[in-house]
Write a structure and sequence with these properties.
Length: about 290
């Protein structure tokens, strides 16, 4: 399968490219330096020249707080840009896989969100990502919209790395325990996206780490696994106000049948990431 991965330099792209090549796929990787998805004509020309069978769009404005002030700019990338890429894929005869987020939901549920549940984003970031879902679906019938959550992995700034760094410097860290979701390791999400890319089913899919936990739970598990002595103290969202509202409950589940993707439990993802992280550190330090 010939894949065009847009946004390949980001954290998820860092995992997806190698996973795709390891699976025997031909991969063309592009990022902001070689494609501007907000430019309709240029996007169409590049996709046509690259001649992919599947386009996977990882490109996004991901500054959640920044989007509150610059929603118009975020919308150009997350909404219009996603639609442009989906249309270009359609013209090239290609399938489109669009990455979306738990932020499209209001976050006030008490049971996991499934694909058909009503959306209702409460942040600018969530609104722009939902606009992207709608633009992709309208532009290309052969589409997959893969919603994920709480993503972390090598190759980009993420919560687990931040906690490990703070844990090495401090005796105590305070982490909110009133936001619950599904931590998702890029090393588990990447092969799931390849499965969706290779399939024939279309529509919305939820693809997040199995189970649920709070940010406090994730921080404590990460520091304990790393052998850190730093104490993790629970706190509330109200004590850490941010420009963009965060969903209090954004657990994702699936109602799809045989074509659903199921990622391993979030603790397995954390263990995989820590092993990957340790291996990278050891390799960087010299021969083993």
């Amino acid at each position: 399968m010939r894949l065009l991965v847009v946004g390949a330099a980001g954290m998820l792209g860092h995992a997806l490219g190698p996973a795709a090549r390891a699976a025997g796929h031909e991969v063309v990787e592009r990022d902001i330096d070689s494609i501007d998805i907000t430019d309709v004509a240029a996007t169409r020309a590049i996709v046509s020249a690259d001649a992919p069978q599947v386009v996977i769009n990882l490109a996004a404005w991901t500054d959640v707080d920044g989007a509150e002030e610059h929603e118009d700019v975020a919308l150009r990338v997350n909404g219009d840009g996603a639609g442009n890429l989906a249309a270009a894929a359609r013209e090239a005869g290609a399938r489109i896989v669009q990455i979306s987020t738990d932020y499209v939901f209001p976050g006030d549920a008490h049971e996991p969100y499934v694909e058909s549940d009503p959306t209702g984003p409460r942040s600018a970031y969530g609104r722009t990502k939902l606009a992207g879902e709608q633009a992709v679906a309208a532009a290309n019938p052969d589409h997959v919209i893969a919603r994920t959550a709480w993503l972390y992995g090598a190759g980009g700034k993420n919560f687990v790395d931040t906690m490990l760094a703070l844990g090495a410097e401090r005796e105590e860290v305070r982490v909110v325990d009133d936001q619950v979701g599904c931590p998702t390791w890029t090393g588990h999400l990447a092969p799931a996206l390849l499965t969706l890319a290779a399939g024939r089913a279309t529509g919305i899919f939820h693809a997040a780490g199995g189970g649920r936990c709070s940010w406090f739970d994730l921080a404590r598990a990460a520091l304990e696994a790393a052998g850190a002595t730093c104490r993790v103290v629970p706190t509330t969202t109200a004590e850490f106000p941010r420009p963009a509202p965060r969903p209090a409950f954004s657990v994702l589940a699936t109602e799809r049948g045989a074509d659903a993707v199921h990622l391993p439990a979030w603790r397995e993802g954390l263990a995989g990431f820590l092993a990957e992280r340790a291996d990278t550190t050891t390799t960087a330090g010299g021969p083993r």
